[in-house]
Design a protein that fits this description.
With about 50 residues, the protein is mostly helical. The protein contains two helices and no strands. The longest helix has 22 residues. The chain is elongated.
């Protein structure tokens, strides 16, 4: 596993944690959607680089 794959996976997990936190705080749905899309894209990029 190279460093870029690890970095993308960590960023994706960080954003997923933010999505969960914002969901629990009842934040704006559009902000949650943008963070969720970024999280999925980062996780996918990290997994594809494995």
């Amino acid at each position: 596993m190279n460093t870029y794959a690890s970095l993308f996976i960590l960023i994706g997990l960080f954003l997923a944690g933010g999505v969960y936190s914002f969901w629990k705080q009842k934040q704006s749905k559009s902000v949650i959607a943008v963070m969720a899309i970024g999280s999925v894209m980062s996780l996918a990029a990290g997994l594809l680089r494995l």
